[in-house]
Each structure stands twice: as structure tokens, then as C-alpha cells.
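Incident log entry.

Two folding requests arrived from the same account within the same minute. Monitoring flagged them as a possible duplicate submission, but the sequences differ. Recording both here for audit purposes.

Request one:
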Amino acid sequence: MTLLTIKIEKIGLKDAGQCIDPYMTISVKDLNGVDLNPVQDTPVATRKEDTYIHFSVDVEIQRHVEKLPKGAAIFFEFKHYKPKKRFTSTKCFAFMEMDEIKPGPIVIELYKKPTDFKRKKLQLLTKKPLYLHLHQTLHKDS
């Protein structure tokens, strides 16, 4: 059986420097948007430069790759704190489908909120070349 570790390297956003307490929520959903795994949050990202927020954090997907059903996807929701409204808001999201699971770097597109776990009405966040940068590692579970 194979386990997947995803390193969340960085996210590109035009207003990256203005995001307060940014973090990611990672979830694995089936085609109907139902959770297949416990939802995980990253620590708050501390490094920002230009149009990037750097996470450099590893997330272990808590299920063997072989046991993920056809049509499942791994979602990455980018969240940040809005002091005026006093709550944490989802700014955008990205996802990776099963055929995208392979070792090495991957760059995925960002979509406008609200997060569409069923992947029916997707709208790109921007026309600018800003993405979520990830690196995948597959391990054989002994």
C-alpha cells in the first residue's frame, strides 16, 4: 500500500502581503463532497514575499492511495483572518484529483470561493499566473 505526503510549498496571490494569519485546510472528499479522511489544518504561514505566502509544511494524507475511491480529490482551502469582520474567511481553493498523484512537484490552479467540493461550478480566481505549489512524495507502507 502507498501513503502520500504533500509538501505545501507556497501559494501565489496578488495581495499575499495583506493576508493575516494565513493557513490551509486540507481535506479529502469523494465526488459528492463527503469527507473520506479527517480534515487537517496547517500551522499559520509566517513567511511572505512579493506575491507568495510560503508554507513549507508537510501534510500526510491519512489513507492509502489505493483505498481512495475513483473520483476522489484532495482539497486545499486557503484561509485568512479578516479583522474588520472578526472571522476567518476562505479566500480561494485548489484541488488535486487522483490522476494527479505522482511523485515530484505539481502546480495547481486556484479557484474562487465558495469551495465547490463537488467540482461542478469552478471559476478561476485570476487570469494571472498565480498557483498553489506542492511537492508529492509517495511511500510504501511496510
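Request two (distinct sequence, not a duplicate):
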Amino acid sequence: MERKLCFPLFAVLLFVMLNSAQAQTIESYSEVGGTLILTPPFSGAITSILWKHDGNLVVELVGNEVDYYGKFRGMATLDTTTGRLEIKNMNKIYAGWYTVEINNQVQSQEYNVELIKKVPKPEVAFKPLACSPALLNCTMTCDGDTSEAGPVTYSWREGDGDWIPGEKDRDIKNDEETKKVKTFSCQMKNPVSEEESEPQDNPFFQLIPESSAG
């Protein structure tokens, strides 16, 4: 008798695990005063939509009627043909967890909305500060206050070259290749902004004289 009960229990656990695995969390970001846009990946005819924020009603479409609730009145706009939700003048009260039901079906994508600041204009700084041709190597850092700026990515540029993705810190060696680079620049980027530094002189740069002919 006990062995017969095991199969239904296993089937229920498997069903729960599969449904959990299908849910996809999308990290979404907005700046203070900005506009948040959440677009569910749904195609087809839509007869009903229900958005929720932290479990509370945001907006509901039933038939041709659209109802907005609470703090979202006058702030949110629903596209009834795509299910897209737009919230203007974002602030902290609108951050949190968003879910959507379309045609009475909970959609697989859920949205974790976070409010972040723009990145600052960075500066290229050297470690040690007295980086000079007498040293074998130095470390450059893309310096700037990124607190509350969310996920920040960094890129570096040599002279007028292309931006190359990298880390906040970059090591340079006093070798022949580095000596050819006149300036270094760095770039900060997050989901709501990007800024780049002014070019910084390369302390290892050497002007190589043209060899005389004959």
C-alpha cells in the first residue's frame, strides 16, 4: 500500500519542479524620474490582461474596459494589443516584483524592477599615483562613485581606437606595444546611462623618431 502512494507524490513534486523551472525572472532597471516599460513576449489575440505589483493589482483589462488601481492611476499606461505596461515618473514606490496574466494565463516571465542612478563621468587614475617610465608596470582604474548605480560595465580605449570591454582595473606594462599608445580612456555603462572619461596621457608613451633614409 505504501509503495502505491509514492508514485502520485512523485508526480506532484515533478509537476511543481517543472512549473518552477519554466518561470523566468527578468531584471529590469529604471532611473528616478524615468519611464519603465515592461513588454511580455506574447503574440496572438488578447481578451484579458492583469498586471500585479508585489501581489497587488496594477491594471486590468476585461473586454473593452481598462481599470487602473491605487498609486498607478495616472502613472501607468497599458497597451491592450500587446500587454505592454508603461510607468512614467518612476520612484521607489514602483520598484519591486511584477507579474502579468494574459487571457487568464500567468505568463512565464516575471519582472524584478530596481531603481538605479546614472553612472558618473569617470576619470582614469593610476596606481601607484607616481606612475612613471622608471616603473615596469602600473595599474589603471576607471574611477567614479558607482554606488546605487546597479550593474556597471567597463570598457577601455587606446588613443582613438575602438572601445574594448574590460574590468574596472587594467594593468599596463612598460613594453614596446604600450609605449606606442599616447592616451587611455575608459567608459562606464549601466542599463540607464553611459559616460566616458577624458583621454589620460600614457606615462609610458614614447615618441619614436622616424628613421632617416640613406
